[in-house]
Every structure is written in structure tokens, then in C-alpha cells.
């Protein structure tokens, strides 16, 4: 098991964007060496840092671009999340036919 796989799994499982700090904490907690069910093979992830998480995200995005995937990991104000790439937005919009982008009126601008 690799750090990139763990980060990817957490991003997919999380319903909301998640920060690198929260990802690192989640991984450290799950691999806590003092835990009764800690897996020795995963003990190396017990001290994972935010920088390592960011490196894993960069590596994942590189893999996604290289393999032509239709998604990428992007950071928003509230954290990291997997998003569909822009060129596929026309297709993704069809999942939500009733929702239209809201436009501001002239006075609201």
C-alpha cells in the first residue's frame, strides 16, 4: 500500500473537501502504533506530514494527466477534493438537469 493510494481513497470517501492537515491526521490516527489493530506494514505512515500529503496529491495529479483521466484533485478554500476536469463539464451537467447556473442581476452586480 502506498501513500498515494491512501490519499486517493480518503479523497474519494470524504463527502466534503478535506485539508492536507486533516488527511495527515487521519492517516496517522489509522496507523497509530499503539493501536491494538495496527498493521506493522502501515506503521511507516504513522508520522506522515502535510508536505508528504501534498507530494502525494501532486503525484496523483501527474498520474491522472499522464493517463488522460477525466478528473483531478484541486484545492478549494475548505480543502482538497476530486473534481471532473472542465472539458467534461457538459456531460457532468446532464446529471443535474434541473439545476442551472444562477446569474446575478444588473443591480446585484
Keywords for this entry:
109 residues; alpha+beta; two-stranded antiparallel sheet; 4 helices; 2 strands; 11% strand; elongated
Can you tell me about this structure?
It is a single chain. By secondary structure, this protein is an alpha+beta fold. It is 40% helix and 11% strand. It contains four helices and two strands, in the order αααββα. The chain has helices at residues 3-13, 20-30, 50-66, 89-93; strands spanning 71-76, 79-84. Strands 1-2 form a two-stranded antiparallel ribbon. β1 and β2 form a beta hairpin. It is elongated. It starts with a helix and ends in a 16-residue tail after the last helix. 13% of the residues are buried. The model has no long low-confidence stretch (mean pLDDT 86).
Question: Brief overview, please?
Answer:
By secondary structure, the chain is an alpha+beta fold. The protein is 40% helix and 11% strand.
List the helices and strands and how they pair.
Blueprint: H1 3-13, H2 20-30, H3 50-66, E1 71-76, E2 79-84, H4 89-93
Antiparallel strand pairs: 1-2
Fraction of residues in H or I helices: 40-55%
Structure annotation, total helices: 4
Order of helices and strands: HHHEEH
- Shape summary: elongated
| Structural class category | alpha+beta
Widest sheet, order of strands? 1-2
Supply Rg: 18 Å
In percent terms, what proportion of residues is strand?
Answer: 5-15%
Uncertain segments are none
How many strands appear in the DSSP assignment? 2
Arithmetic mean of pLDDT:
86
Task: Note the main sheet.
Answer: 2 strands, antiparallel
Amino acid at each position: 500500500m502506498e501513500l498515494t493510494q491512501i490519499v486517493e481513497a480518503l479523497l474519494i470517501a470524504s463527502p466534503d473537501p478535506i485539508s492536507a492537515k486533516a488527511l495527515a491526521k487521519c492517516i496517522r490516527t489509522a496507523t497509530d502504533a499503539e493501536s491494538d489493530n495496527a498493521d506493522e506494514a502501515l506503521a511507516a505512515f504513522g508520522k506522515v506530514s502535510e508536505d508528504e500529503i501534498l507530494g502525494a496529491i501532486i503525484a496523483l495529479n501527474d498520474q491522472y494527466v499522464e493517463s488522460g483521466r477525466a478528473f483531478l484533485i484541486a484545492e478549494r478554500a475548505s480543502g482538497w477534493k476530486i473534481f471532473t476536469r472542465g472539458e467534461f463539464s457538459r456531460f457532468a451537467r446532464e446529471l443535474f438537469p434541473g439545476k442551472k447556473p444562477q446569474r446575478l442581476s444588473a443591480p446585484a452586480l
